[in-house]
Amino acid sequence: MARLADYFVVVGYDLDNRVEGEGQGRILQRFPEKDWEDSPFPQGVELFCQPSGWQLVPERHPASFFVAVLTDINSERHYCACFTFWESLDNPQLKKNKAGEADEADEDLAVIQPAKVFAPKSLVLVSRLDYTEAFRNCLGLIYTIHVDGLSTTLETVIGNLLTCVIPIAGGSQPSHEEREESLRTITLGAGDRQVIQTPINDSLPVSGCSVAQLFRQLGIVNVLYLFCAALTEHKILFLSSSYQRLTDACRGLLAIMFPLKYSFTYVPILPGKLLEVLSTPTPFIIGVNSFFRSETQELLDVIIADLDGGTITIPECVHISLLPEPLLQQTQTALSMVLDPELEVADRAFPPQSTQPSALKIQDKEIRAVFLWLFARLFQGYRWCLHIIRIHPEPVIRFHKAAFLGHRALTEDDFLTKVLDGMAFAGFVSERGPPYRATDLFDDLVANQVERIRQEEACPRKVMNHIKELAEQLFKNENPYPAVAMHKVQRPSETSQNTSQSQTTFPVLDEVSVQLFIDHAAAKLKNAPPVVKAEVKSMVPSGPPLGDVVDRNSTVMANSARRLEVVRNCITYIFENKMLEAKKLMPAVLRALKGRTARVCLTQELNQHVLQNRAVLDDQQFDYIVRMMNCTLQDCSHMDEHGIAAALLPLITAFCRKLGAGITQFAYSCVQEHMVWTTMQFWEAMFYSDVQNHIKALYMETDDGDQLKTSGQQGGPGSKREISALELAAGQSRLWPTLSKELQMERVQKEESTVFSQAIHYANRMSYLLLPLDTSKNRLLRSTGLGDVESVSNSYVTNSIAGSMAESYDTESGFEDAESSDVANSVVRFINRFVDKVCNESGVTNEHLKALHTMIPDIVQMHIETLDAVHRESKRLPPIQKPKLLRPTLLPGEELVMDGMRVHLIPDGRDESTGQMGGPPLLPAEGAIFLTTYRLIFKGTPTDPLVGEQIVTRSFPIASLTKEKRISVTLSMDQFVQEGLQLRSCTFQLIKIAFDEEVASDLAEGFRKHLHKLRYPQHVQGTFAFTVGQSAKMLEPKNKDKNQSLKTLSKNLMKSAKRTINRQYVTRKKYSPPNWENRSSFQSELDEDEISVSEEVDQSALTLSSTIRSSDRQTMSNVVERACCRDYQRLGLGTLSNSLTRSNNEPFRISTINRMYTVCRSYPGLLIVPQNIPDSTIHRICRCYRQNRFPVVCWRHSRTKAVLLRSAGLHAKGVVSFFKSPNAPTAVPSQADSPSLEQEKYLQAIISSMPSYSESSGRNTLSGFTSTHMNTSDSSDKLRQPKIGDLMKQVLGNKEDVPGTFSRGGKWGSIRGSGRLSAYNPDVGTRLAGKESPQPNGGPSDQLFLRQQKAYLYIIGDKAQLKGGKQDSFQQWEVIPIEVCDVRQVKNSFKKLVKACVPSSPNCDPSTSFLRLLEDSEWMPLLHRVLQVSVLVVELLDTGSSVMVSLEDGWDVTTQVVSLVQLLCDPYYRTFDGFRLLVEKEWLSFGHRFSHRGAQTLGSQSSGFTPIFLQFLDCVHQIHLQFPMEFEFSQYYLKFLAYHYVSNRFRTFLLDSDYDRIELGVLYEEKADRKNPQVWKSVWDYVDRLNKKTPIFYNYMFSPEDEEVLRPYTFISNLKVWDFFLEETLSEGPSYDWELKGRQEREAEEMAEKPDTSAPKSQRHTVWPCYDNMNKVLPDAITKLLQDLQSLEAELGQTSDKWKDTWDKIKTTQRTETKLESKPSFSSSLLMSSNLGHQRRSQGVCLQESGVRSSINLGLDCEARATSTPVTSRQSTSTFYSQFQSTESENRSFEGVLYKKGALLKPWRPRWFVLDKTKHQLRYYDYRQDKECKGVIDLCEVETITAGTPALGAPKNIEEKAFFDLKTTRRVYNFCAQDGTNGQLWMDSIQSCLSDET
What is the pTM of this model? Predict the structure, then answer.
C-alpha cells in the first residue's frame, strides 16, 4: 500500500522578494509540515510551479494543470501535480509611486499601469505515484470548493487526500478480495467519488495515451531516431508551448524503452532559471517551454525535438546509431500498420468498409507492443549469456557481451554494441538477471515466443496479430476493469470561472485540523494488522539456446564437411606421427581455419587428445600443433566473440614438449602474440565462465541427496538433460529462506572460497600468456597500452583498486622498450587490476584480496624463472629443418653488404601471387633477404609444398626505396616471427618481410641502418654508379667550398681536355632514320665540317684568357657534342665557325656566353639565341627569370620555320615590368625598365626570325597567313584553326562550346586587346576559334588597331604568376595562362598511385578498389594535362606561330612539354638516336634536377621522390600506344629507362646539371671502365650494346610516315595504365639487368646437366603471369623466328648475322616484292603483318570524310602507291589496321582498284572494287584486305554502262579510255581505272554480268 499524495503545498507570488526585477514564488503552506521518513520533501517545488517565471499579469488567465517530475538524491522520482489559478491584487507598482518611492526611471515608462493585476497561485500535490487524472480531479475539487464556496471545508478535503492509501499493484489473477485492491474507490468528503485502477503488474509502465500522442506529434521516423538516441545515451531536448505535452512526451519515450529503464537526468519540465543544466556533459531527457527556444540554439550536441512543429534537429557532430537491418525496416512497417491501417488497402479496388485506426488508448498499447516485439528480437537468447558468479547471499550476475554478439553475428553492429555497453542495459541485467524472481510479460515473450516471432517475421499480417495480442495484455494490465467508470467530481460553475470580481483570495488553511486528520490516519494504520501481499516468485525461463537460433538463420560462415574432415585427418596424422601426410594437408588446414566452424572443430579434436590435463608431444608434433593454434588465434578479435580463444586457453596449458632434464615447454609460450590475451574484457568473461562452472559443480555435489530429487521433480520430463547454472541457482534461491543460519553461512563461505581459488588460478594463467619467453626482448603488447583497459571492460560494477597498485597504473604505456624487471612489474600491475575488479564484483573478502596482492608478484617471479630455463633449453634444440638459403646472382661489380638473413616474404595486397585469382600460392615464401651495394634481393621458395620447387625472387634497386616501415607480422604457417619490415620502391615493388626467429634484433636493426646508409649517401659519389667495384666501401664526401670559384671549374675543364686531347674524335652513329635517303648527303657534310668555337665572345666572361686556347678547343668540341650542336645544325638553328664573319642571313646563332656556366649554372654551355641579340643583352635579361633561365631556342619546325623556346617563369617583379602598359604609371624603379625593354627586343628578335613575319611585312593578317602557308601545308589545314581554339579552351578550362566552322568575321586579336591580362582569360580560346571578342566596355571592337591577326609568338605561362600585368596592343605575342601541376601535387599523386598499384594489404572494401584508388591518385589527370598542353603547342607550331614555354623554374613541367612537343612534331626523335639526343639535350643538358627529384643523397632526402621524368616516359608510352608504327623503339625500352633512371646503376641520370657533372669530372669520361669493361657508366652505351645483341628494344612495327606530326588523343578515357606499374616476374625479379639473365640461364643449364634418373620430363610448361617472364616464355613470332634462325645457323656451323642485318634484308626483300606486284599477295605479306594487331592513328584536326580510310601494304606503303598513279600529297586521315585475313570465302568474280568520284565537291578516291556475279553486286572497300564493305551497287538497278570523260579533279596522267560511267535508277557513278586496258576490262566484266542477269 502507498499514499496517494505525500504532500499538499500552496505556493504563491512573493510580493516582498524580487530578485533582479523578476518575481519569485514562495511556499505559503505545506501539509504535513514534517517530512515523511520514507519520502523527504523535494526542494525547489516553487520553481516548477511556474517554469517560465513568476510574473504579474494585467488579465486573469484560465486555470492550468500539469505534472512536473522531480528526482531526488536517491534517484526516486516525485510527481508534482501543479494546479495554477490567478488571483487579483492591487498593483504594487502604483503603491510605490504614490509613496514617492518610484525611481526616476519609472517616469519614462510609457505604459499606463493598471490598478488591478493578477498573481499566480499554485496548489501542488507531491506523490511518488503517477496518477495524472486523479491528481487533476483532486486539485480541481479543492479549487471548486474555494471558488464556489461549497459547504465542505478545505481542511477536510485536504486531510482526506493526504490520508488516502491505495495499493501499488494488483495480482496477476485478481480474486474478489484482490479486486478491491485493484479497484480503489476514494472520496474526499465533498460528495465526490473516484475509482483508481492500479496496474496488475507494476513492472510494466503506465502510459495512458502518451505514446500514441508522441507518434502523432513527431511521426514514425523521428520517434525512432529519438528512441535510438535515448538507448545510445545521447542528449534529447523536447520543446513545446504546453507543459503537459512535454511531460506526456517524456513519459511516452520512457514507455517504449521498456524493458530498459532510463537512468540518466530526466526532467520533463525544466524551469527557465535552470537552463544551464542543458550544458551538462551527461546524457539527459529534458523538456523546455518553446518560450526559451532561442536559448537552446547554441547547444551543439543536443538533439532537439519540437513537439509543436513535428520536427527533430540532429546536430552535425552527433551520429545516431540506428537499429540493425532488417529490424529497422520491419519495425517501421509494423508501426505504419498500427498508425495508418488504411495504407495497406489504399490501392484496392474494393477497400473494406472499416479500416479506421484503433482508439487512442488502444493504439498507444499497440505501439508499445511493437517495441516489446522489437526488444524480444534484439535480446533473444540473452539469458544464455548470463554468468552467475554468486548465488548466496544475493545472486551476482554478469553478462557475456562478446559471446552474445558473436552468436547473433552482430559484432560489427554499432547500435547493439552501444546498447549493451550502456547504463540502461546494466540495470536490465541487475534487475532481470536473477533466475528466481517475479516475471512479467517481457520475460514470457523473450523466453517462450521467440520461435513464433521468428516464423512470423516475414508475414506482416501475422506480426500484427501478435502485436494486437500483446497490446491487449498491456491494456488489461493498465486497465484491469475498463467497464468500471464511477467518477463523480464537481467542477467550478461557469459563473464562478467567468466572474473576476467575486473571487476571494485562497484562504489560509488551519494547519491543526489538517494535522489531526493525518495523525488519526497514522494511528489507525499502526493498529491495523499489516497487509502482507505474497510476491509470486518463480524460476525465469531461459528460452531457446542461442546457437540453435543462429544456426537456423544460417548466419554462421559455411564450412563444407570436406574442410572439417581435412582438419580432423591432419590432427589424426600428427598424433599418429605420420608427419609427411600432415605436411601435405597443412596448407589446406591453414586455409580452412579461416572459417569459424573449422576453428571450433580444431578445439574439439585437440581436446580428445588431452589426458589428465596434459599432452606431451615430440618436437615436430609440437611445432605443427602450435602452428594450427596460431592460425586459429590470428583471426580472433580482441573480444573473442566466438569463444575460440576461450576454448583454446585450457589446451595451451596442456600441450607441451620435453626440452631437457625436468624442463617442459608448454604451448602458451609460443602463442602469446595475439591481441586477445591483452584484453581485460576477455579475461573477465573467461573468469566468470569458469567461476560459474565451479559454483554449479559445488551445488551439484551438494544436491546429490534429496534436494536433487526436488530439482528433478521441478524439472519434470526435461530433468534428464543437464541442469543449467541459472536453473540450479533458481532452485537454491528458492531454498535459501528455509536453510538455517549456519548452513547459509557455510554456503556463502564455500562460494567465496571457490571464487578466491579461481582468482589464484587466473593469476597463474595470465602470467603464462603475458610474460614473453624471452623477457629481455619483450614482444608482448607492443602496440597496445594497458591504461585503457577500463574502457573495454564488460563489467558494470565500479572498480575499487588496491591503493598500492593504483598510483602509477594509468600512466603505463605497455611493455615497449622495457627491461625485464619492467616487464614483470607491468604484468603484476595488469593482473592486480584484473584481480581487484573481479574480486570486488564477486564479493571476495578483504583478507583474501590482500593475500592475492601479496601472492601475485611471487607467481610472476616464479614464472619468469621457469621461462628463463625454458628459453635457455629451447635455444639448444636442433633447428627445425628449414629450406636452404639460395644465393642471388649478382651483377659485375655488385657486392654483398650483408649476407642473407632468413626471412618470410609476406603477401601484400596483390592477389596474383597468393592463389586468390587462380594458380598456385607462390606467397608466402621462405628464404633470405640480401643487401648488396646495388639492390635489395629476396630469394626463396614458397611455403606451400605443392609449389615448393619454384624459386621466388623479388628485388629492387636500393636507390629506388621510397618508404621503410616497421610492422608486426602474424604468420599462419609458422611460429610467430619477431619483427617485420615493409619496404616500398618507386619501381612499383613492395617487399614485405618478417624476420625469422633465428635473426637477432640487433641484426635486423643493423640491416635497417645499412639500408638507410646505402639509400641516402652523403654525396652522389657514394651511389652505386660511382662505387661499383670498390669493395662496397662508402666514399667519403669531398670537402668543397659551396661558392667554388671559376678557377676550380676551369681546372676541371682543363683536366677533361687533357684526357680527351689524345683521343681521336669519334663521330656518332648516323642520326637520320633508316628510310631518310635524302639526308645522307647532309650527314657527310657534317662529318667534313670542323667544329670549333667562334672567337667572338664576351670579354668579361673569360677568366683564363681573352680567347680560348687550342687545348680549350678540344674541350669545347666535347661541349659542342654534349650540347647537341649537331642537332641544332640538323634543324638549321646555327653553326660554329672559325671565321669572325658570320652570315647575317641566319636568324639564330650558337652563343658561347654560358661556356663557363656563369650566366646560368643549370643551362648547357652552348645556347641558341637570335642572331642580332648581343651577349651583353643576355646578361641583363636573364635576371628577370627564375634561376637565370632566360628564353632559348631548342627546336625549329622544318616546314613553318616556327621555333620552340624554353625558359623559366618570370620573377614577380619581372612579370609586372614585362607586361606593364607603356603609358601607365608604375611603382617599379626606373632601372627595372631596361631589362623589360631588353626582353621585348629579345622576343621581337625571335618574331623577326620567322619567315611569316617578313613575308607579311610585320603584320600577319589572317588572309596573308592563309595565302602564305596553305600552299605548303595540307588542304586540311584550312580547317585546323578552329581546332586550336578548342584545344586552347580545353587548356584554359573554358566550358563554352566552340563551333566547328570558321567565322570569317571573327577577330584574331591578341590578348592585349582587352587592355588587361587576367589570371584566367577565355578570350584567347575564343579568338583562336575565330569568335568575336567584345571590348571590356561592351562597345564594338576597334577595327583600326585590331585587325584580324594571329600572334607570331605564344608564351605558355603559369596562371598564378601572370596576375595584375598589362599588355600593349601593338606587341605581336600572346600569353596563354595555364594551371601547372605543382611538384607537390605530382609527388602526392605518385604516392597514391604506388599504393593503388602495389597495395600493402588485401582490401575487400569496394570504396578502396584498384580503379577507385587509381582515380583518387589523379595520376591520369596529370598526364592528360601535360599531353593536352603539348598537343596545343604542336598545333600552334604547325600553324606557323612560335611558342615559348615559360613555366615554373623551367626544369620540370617545361622540360616535359618541350620534349613531348619535339617528339610529336619530329619523327627523328622517335628513333633510338633521336630519343637519346632528346633526353640528353632537354633533360640532362638543360638541367632537370635528377638527383634532387630522385632524393639520391642525404641532403635531398627531405624533399622526397618526385617522378617528373617518369611522368614524361608515361606520356611517351601513351603516345606509343596510339601510334605503334611511328617509334623505332619498343615499350620495353621505355620501361628500361623508367627503371634505370632511379636505379643509380648508370651515371647518366645522376647530378642536376652539366655544371655539376663537369665539377665532378664525369661529363666527358670514357665510355667504359678499362679495368672492368663490364661496368657500364652510360645507359646509352649499354642500350647500344644490348641492341646489337637482341631485338628486345626494337619495335618491329616501325614504319614511319615522312614528316608525320602525331596528335594523340589526350582525354583520360584514351589513356591506359602503364603495365610497368603493374607487372611482376617472381621467377627472376625485374628483367632490366640483362647480365643477370645470362648468368641465371647458365646456372639453370649447369643444373640441367646433372644426371637425372627420374622419368622423362614433359615438354609442356605452365605459364603463370606473375611468375614467368612473358617475353621470354611466350616471345612474339618475329623474335621467335630470329631465335630459331640463329639456332639453326649455329647447328650448321655457319656464322650467324646480327639480328638487325637479317631483319633489314627481309624488309628490303619484302618492299621489292611489293613494288613488283600491283596486288600484293596474301602470303607475301604474312610475315611482316603478323604483329600488326595495333593501329596507326594520325589524328587529323578535322577529317574531311569520316568514312575514308587509307589502305596499307605491309605497314609500309599505301595501296594507292602500289598502283601506277602517283599521289601528289598525302592526306592526314585516320588509318586503321586490322589483322590481314583471307577473303577467299567470298564470291569475287573480278576485282581491282578503281577511282570513284565522290559526291558534290568531294575528290576522287581510290577504292578496291569487287564484282560479285553470284550476288549480282559491285561492292567496294577501302583496301584489299578490308573486311568491312563500304558500299554496294546492286546490278539489277544498273541501266547503262558507257565510256566517260575526265571530270573536274580527276586523277591526272591517265588516258581518257580509262574513264567510264555507270548509270543506275538512282544516280550516275563516275569511275576511272588505272589505264585504258583496265577500264575496258571493267566495262566488259560488268556488261557480261548484266547480260547474265537478263
Answer: 0.55
Which pLDDT score, from 0 to 100, does residue 1222 have?
A: 41
Residue 404 grid coordinates: 552474445
The cell for 885 is: 638459403
pLDDT tens per residue, range 829-845: 999 998 998 888 888 88
Among 1364, 1305, 1365, which Cα is nearest to 1333's?
A: 1305
C-alpha pair distances (Å), 658 with each of 517, 655, 662, 871, 875: 88, 11, 8, 13, 13
In the block, cell 578445439 appears at 603
Q: What backbone phi and psi angles, to 5 degrees, belong to 1843?
A: -70, 145
Q: Which residues contact 640 (CB under 8 A, 6 or more apart)?
A: 402, 406, 646, 676, 679, 682, 685
How far is Cα 294 from Cα 312, in angstroms, rounded to an integer?
Answer: 15
Q: Which residue has the cell 542528449?
A: 235
Cell 468500471 locates to: 484
The predicted structure's pLDDT at residue 231: 93
- How do strand 1353-1358 and strand 1442-1446 relate by DSSP bridges? parallel
- Residue 255: its pLDDT value, please? 92
Q: How many angstroms separate the CA atoms of 1393 and 1418, rounded? A: 8
CA 1281 to chain centre: 44
Instruction: State the helix-helix crossing angle for 1508-1522 and 1383-1397, rounded to 10 degrees.
Output: 70
**Other beta carbons within 10 Å of 426:** 17
Closest CA to 1763 of 1708, 1809, 1806: 1806
- Residues 1542-1556 have pLDDT tens digits of 998 888 888 889 888
**φ, ψ at 682 (rounded to 5°):** -65, -45
Cα 804 to Cα 486, 825, 834, 1004, distances in angstroms:
68, 13, 14, 40
Placement of cell 677568366 in the chain: 1103
Q: Which residues pair with 12 in a beta bridge?
A: 26, 121
Strand order in the sheet with 7-19: 22-31, 7-19, 116-127, 77-90, 64-71
| Residue indicated by cell numbers 532510463 | 262
Contact 446, 544 (CB under 8 A): no
Cross-strand partners of 1805:
1796
Q: How many CB atoms lie within 10 A of CB 1837?
A: 13
- Give 1741's contacts (C-beta < 8 A, 6+ positions apart): 1276, 1277, 1279, 1280, 1283, 1284, 1435, 1607
> Maximum Cα–Cα distance for the chain, whole Å?
144
CB 635, CB 679: distance < 8 Å: no
Q: Where are the alpha helices (DSSP H) in 1745-1875?
A: 1759-1762
β-strand pairing of 1817-1821 with 1831-1834: antiparallel
1334-1341: long-range contacts, CB 8 A cutoff, minimum separation 24: 1341/1307, 1341/1309, 1341/1313
